[in-house]
Design brief:
By secondary structure, the chain is mainly α. The chain has five helices and two strands. The chain has a two-stranded antiparallel sheet with strand order 1-2. Helix 1 crosses helix 2 and helix 3 packs across helix 4.
């Protein structure tokens, strides 16, 4: 677990990128977490890696998991279907039609 903390610290230290105005800034939570996951060479999934870090008290992992948690609920999925249902249906129909034409 301590090696994960070292990887996170290293990823945060090297996570300086150019913004749209040229200034240097930190990456967002997701990019820092993904970069740390890649550097750790962990065989577990990104979600499992984040859970391990969250147990050890890493703020980025806790923030990422809390954000993802709301999008996995049934209420959030139902609300998304209400907001974007027609577009989703149209995209599914177009995909099916394209598959039929390809055969």
């Amino acid at each position: 677990m301590s090696e994960n903390k070292e990887v996170i610290a290293e990823a945060n230290a090297t996570d300086k990128g150019r913004g749209d105005r040229g200034e240097v800034g930190e990456g967002n939570t997701s990019s820092r977490l993904k970069r740390a996951h890649e550097k750790s060479k962990s065989k577990s999934s990104l979600k499992q890696f984040a859970r391990e870090l969250a147990k050890s008290g890493d703020g980025d992992a806790q923030a990422w998991l809390s954000h993802k948690k709301s999008s996995f609920t049934k209420e959030a999925q139902a609300a998304r279907l209400v907001r974007h249902g027609t577009r989703i249906t149209a995209e599914k129909a177009a995909t099916k039609l394209a598959r039929k034409k390809a055969k």
